[in-house]
Write a structure and sequence with these properties.
By secondary structure, the chain is α/β, with parallel strands linked by helices. It has 2 domains: 101 residues, Alpha-Beta Complex (Spore Coat Polysaccharide Biosynthesis Protein SpsA, Chain A); 160 residues, no CATH class. The protein is built from 9 helices and 9 strands. Strands 1, 2, 3, 4, 5, 6, 7, 8 and 9 form a 9-stranded mixed sheet that branches. A hairpin with a 2-residue loop joins β6 and β7. The longest helix has 23 residues. The N and C termini lie far apart (44 Å).
Length: 262
């Protein structure tokens, strides 16, 4: 399903989803609010992986909000994200997961900066929400990113607007990755010194971290693939693997007993 694009939008928002009937309406509602603030500037694309629940039915209730919808089987989240890039028309791209939603009242400054089109990326903070509690997460410093060979990128994908031209120049998401394709893309982006970034110290998005606790504590295959593909020095790679594995193990434990967000 596709509506004709007459004027090139400033921002393409892409949501990829699969069996997301419990959260998709909240996600779309946040885009609805953003579109109301900035009419004509935003294009909304939804890529559904042929959901077996009522996700598509709920999406169709918002036919006046989204500009493009496709529901078909895919090869995973990064295949779906690449499809979104294929169909988008905006100068900037933002990926909004089906569990997440924008903090629409704090994005005005970001939109004004995006209008200048001076920067390849405008990024901010995320608000990690679990149950009734929140935790503000800010990007790490350049110094810390270098310490880990950029395997922990400076820019967080959920809280960023990145020019479509960037994806065209360095490529989209590598389907060899299952959970670290966004990290791989951001490493390639950050290490390219020709791209200009602008950070705003404000919350862009509310992020649901509960899915993280279901991932493996460590996935050596993904780590090694990141290291080899992006030529990460051995010492920085080892430091990242050890520290991130310990942090993820602690995070999973605290999340399960609801201590982290008290």
């Amino acid at each position: 399903m596709h509506s004709i694009v007459i004027n090139k939008p400033l921002i393409s928002i892409i949501t990829v989803c699969y069996n997301a009937e419990k959260t998709i309406s909240r996600t779309i509602e946040s885009v609805k609010q953003l579109k109301a603030q900035f009419p004509e500037l935003i294009e909304y694309i939804i890529i559904d992986g042929s959901s077996a629940d009522n996700t598509v039915g709920l999406i169709k209730n918002y036919i006046h909000i989204w500009d493009f919808l496709i529901s078909e089987p895919d090869k995973g989240i990064y295949d779906a994200m690449n499809k979104g890039l294929k169909y988008c028309n905006g100068t900037y791209v933002s990926f909004l997961n089906a569990n997440d939603y924008y903090k629409t009242d704090s994005l005005s400054e970001a939109v004004q900066i995006l209008k200048s089109k001076k920067y390849d990326c405008v990024y901010g903070n995320i608000c990690s929400c679990y149950k009734s509690s929140i935790k503000i997460v800010k990007p790490i410093s350049e110094q810390r990113a270098v310490k880990y060979g950029y395997m922990t990128p400076i820019v967080m994908q959920p809280a960023s607007f990145i020019k479509k031209d960037v994806y065209d120049k360095i490529g989209g998401f590598d389907l060899d990755f299952k959970i670290a394709g966004d990290t791989d893309f951001l490493i390639r982006f950050i290490k390219n010194s020709s791209f200009k970034r602008f950070y705003i110290d404000t919350i862009f998005e509310y992020f649901d971290p509960s899915g993280i606790s279901n991932r493996k504590i460590i996935d050596f295959r993904e780590f090694i693939l990141l290291k080899n593909k992006n030529h990460i020095p051995r010492l920085k790679y080892a430091r990242y693997v050890i520290e991130s594995s310990i942090k993820k193990m602690i995070f999973r434990s605290l999340l399960r007993v609801n201590i982290l967000y008290k």
